[in-house]
Amino acid sequence: MNMKQRCNWASHASSLIQEYHDHVWGKPVMDDILCFKYLIMESAHAGLSWEMILKREAAYDMAYEGFNPMHVATFNQDKVEAMMHSGIIRHRGKIEASIKAAKIVNDIALEFGSFSHYLWSFVNHTPLITYRLPEVWNATSPLSDRISQDLQRRGMNYVGSKIIQAYIQGIGLLNDHDTDCELCSRRNV
User: Fold this and answer.
1) CATH number of the structural domain spanning residue 147
2) What is the rounded distance in angstroms from the CA atom of residue 177 to the CA atom of residue 68?
């Protein structure tokens, strides 16, 4: 049987994680709503497994009513209460921080033309390709440090450098596939 060559972290993971690796992780995301969605999901992921978050993705989509940051920014305490019982991670601080983040994302979109444009400006609108051995894994990077610091300066919570590192890998800002992964953009160079 011919096994698919994946990044080490996904090669022996559940089928849900492998599906995420093969079809989502590391693919450049330019859509503001998807950029916001994955930011909120990564923030919810803090201290938990990514698989737990992925298993609740449909609940997140329903609770956040499509993840439009313009809409999420209008959520009130009644909505927070409803979200606490919606199947997403029941963490009031993270939910309230996500509503605050929506307001900040909207401000960023006004300043930069879009949230995506803001994010991609950190890498000159081209994915930053890492050159590391598969066994060398960095929880943070100078790029995640810069983005994290800027988002925190703007008032966001749950956007530490480790969360942002995972986020920018997920949305393809940082192309971080292992060199022996068949999705690695450096394989055929």
Assistant:
1) 1.10.340.30
2) 29
Q: Which residues are catalytic?
A: 20, 42, 50
Is 171 inside any structural domain? yes
Rounded (5°) CA angle 104-109-112: 120
Residue 113 class from Cβ within 10 Å (0-12 exposed, 13-18 middle, 19+ buried)? exposed
Q: Is the pTM of this model over 0.85?
A: yes
| The three-state (H, E, C) secondary structure of 1-16, written as one string | CCCCCCCHHHHCCCHH
Nearest CA among 91, 2, 4 for reference residue 53: 91
More confident residue, 20 or 178: 20
Tell me which residue has tokens 């859509």. 31
Show the domain range for 111: 25-175
Q: Is 64 domain-assigned?
A: yes
